[in-house]
Design brief:
- The protein is built from no helices and eleven strands.
- The chain folds into two domains: 110 residues, Copper type II, ascorbate-dependent monooxygenase, N-terminal domain (Jelly Rolls, Sandwich), CATH 2.60.120; 56 residues, no CATH class.
């Protein structure tokens, strides 16, 4: 990263090195230099993706201040196909000296042959232009989370607030209670 200047957005790619499709139990993105990484979002570009899947990939997970990894609940997972290509959407910022970074992603898989009861998916909820879900700095998060209805059934909703702009003790990502709906 350069010494001074505007933020820098960059896409980098990696090929998944698996011999077979595997179900993910946990995953974590790790930048080597957190001083300059604003966030990193990893997208899965799957071979033979379903019709309507975005060509730039579907969100797999993200790193941001206050969010360090994902651990799926028991019997819940996300499938990583053996010939998936990963797109790292990187956002860097200058800190006054030249810096380098190498971001990696690690996976912990369920045992071979495991098939989960629930398949996890990412659903970004952002209500532009109103932004009424915004939590003001130096305040606590809401006691209750309200989500817009979706045509797709949701077995488990786990909010993951993007808290990078929060200040003080409340700058961490709160882990609200999981909400369950019978299948």
């Amino acid at each position: 990263m350069y010494v001074r200047g505007s933020d820098w957005w960059l896409d980098q790619y990696a090929e998944v090195q698996l011999t077979e499709d595997r179900w993910i139990k946990a995953m974590e993105i790790k930048p080597s230099n957190r001083k300059i990484v604003h966030h990193a979002v990893v997208y899965a570009i799957e071979p033979n993706a379903p019709e309507g899947a975005p060509p730039e990939g579907t969100t797999l997970t993200e790193y941001a201040i206050g969010k360090y990894g994902d651990i799926f609940a028991d019997n819940t997972s996300r499938l990583l196909k053996k010939v998936t290509r990963l797109r790292f959407d990187m956002h860097y910022f200058a800190i006054g000296s030249e810096q380098k970074n190498r971001t990696t992603i690690g996976f912990k898989f369920y045992p071979k042959g495991f098939v989960p009861k629930y398949e996890g998916r990412n659903l970004s909820i952002r209500n532009i232009p109103n932004d009424e879900l915004e939590i003001p700095p130096n305040t606590s998060g809401p006691d209750r989370w309200i989500f817009p209805s979706s045509q797709e059934r949701a077995d488990r909703l786990i909010p993951a607030p993007y808290a990078h702009a929060r200040q003080g003790n409340d700058a961490r990502s709160h882990q609200p209670q999981q909400h369950f709906r019978n299948p």
